[in-house]
Known about the structure:
By secondary structure, the chain is mostly helical. The protein has helices at residues 2-19, 41-60, 69-79, 85-94, 120-138, 144-151, 157-178. It has a domain at 71-166: Lysozyme (Orthogonal Bundle). 59% of the residues lie in helices and 0% in strands. The chain is elongated and about 105 Å long.
Amino acid sequence: MKTTKTFLILVALLIATLTFSKNAYAEGTAVPSAKLLSFDSSKIIEKDVRSIAIENIFKKYNSPLLGLGATYVKYADKYGVDWKLLPSISGLESSFGQFLMPGSYNGYGWGGGYIYFESWEDGIDIINKTLRGNYMDKWGATDVWSIGPIYAESKTWSVRVNGFMNEIEAEYKSLLAVTPTI
């Protein structure tokens, strides 16, 4: 009797399974859930890699500027200044922000190091803006070699800043060599 009940239940389940359709036919009422957008991912990767290159150099030198790589790139791009220049100036003038007037956020020797900024970002913005407006547009300085004689009295300033720029550039190129393309 028990086996007969079990057999009848199995037959009923088999009939129910075969009777009901397996197709949901949802495609007739489906709507697109998201519009596909096209974009140039290489530009995103390039910007990210520039920020990462700066961050890696800051990390190497145990810099308090760590975390500001994207800020340097943002303002350099905004004003059309070489993205490696200001981080490199900070390398020379303050060992990447380690030696400066307390609370000044001036790791660039700006105004002899006595000018105070409200924050690191404020200084990065103002100096990039001034490099563009005064040094580049007004006086025609186009690179570290022509900015150097205006920016600093030292005859070796450009050479030393350029050394840091080359270090950041080498880091950037090494990152590009291992960055997958999308």
